[in-house]
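Fold these two proteins, one after the other.
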Amino acid sequence: MNIGQAAKASGVSAKMIRYYEQSGLIPPADRRASGYRDYSDTDVHNLSFIRRARDLGFSVAEIGDLLGLWRDQDRQSVEVRKLALSHIETLEKKIVALQEMSRTLGALVACCNGDERPDCPIIDSLQSGREGEDVEIRARVGAVEKLAR
């Protein structure tokens, strides 16, 4: 089947299929005499595996490890579990970071009058904030100040 058919069957876009080939995640497809890629049912099965792993947020490198384990009939499930637990830890750290970003942005939005004036604590915070510095938001005036450490 051609790349469009493989994309439809696997749920992976043609562009991503090319990327996975280029990155070595999947082997290059066979070529027809016309030069077009030719994918087998096995290729589609591999692409579907990759799509499901991507849906769970695994990185390309982690998917490479998962593919290696999947293909290894002598694998130990402890290795797969270890990889999944590591990924869960990464996801939980990202969740905490996203929640912190949401709280900070929510506090800044609460301080913004959203009127016709140019004064804006959101812009002020983005302009003056430095990485690693805490900010204190005062709702009474919408001021953003750096906390002394």
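Now the second one:
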Amino acid sequence: MTEPVYVSETRTAYDTVAESYAEMLRGLLEESTWDRAMLGAFAELVGDGLVGDLGCGPGRLTGYLAKLGLDVFGVDLSPGMVEVARRTHPGLRFDVGSMAALDLPDGALAGALAWYSLIHTPRPDLPVLAAELHRVVAPGGLLLTAFQVGDEVRHLEHAYGHDISADAHRLPVDFVRDVLSDAGFVIQSVLVREPEGDFESTPQAYVTARKPRSV
């Protein structure tokens, strides 16, 4: 089956920017109290069990969650990002893979992190990702996703010092809630905050959702 053009474009874009992306975002987590708070709450709520950082990029959050005590691994569409992640975090596992078809058994994850990794998928295809997340999360398991709030598609032609071609979707909070609920998750919390720092120009949202124990 031929993959959608947006998947190929996203992979190529992140392969292109992998090294500079990792360098420019280095230390960014230390500057965001809200990001650390949400990741800390996620780690506490997940507890024991395998956690997937899905769309992990260069592994900066995978490494952070590991320091918080989670049994975590990363998956990313971009081989270039995975190469950087493996080099930066040699003690952790990183795989190349698609969030739409994860190489994981049903119910394999106690927790799933989708940190700004839904944003390159067009809205009509997001239910497919949500259904796949629901499949791989164990009953009682937790999902945390973060994304830019809005109602527009931005075509990126230059990012992180490179010429690229990829779309980034800003998403309405209610739309994300509905997509996750329709997939079978129960929404547990929603936090929307104002933009911070040089990298953000729109409100940012965090949504946690749990897969019911009885499905």
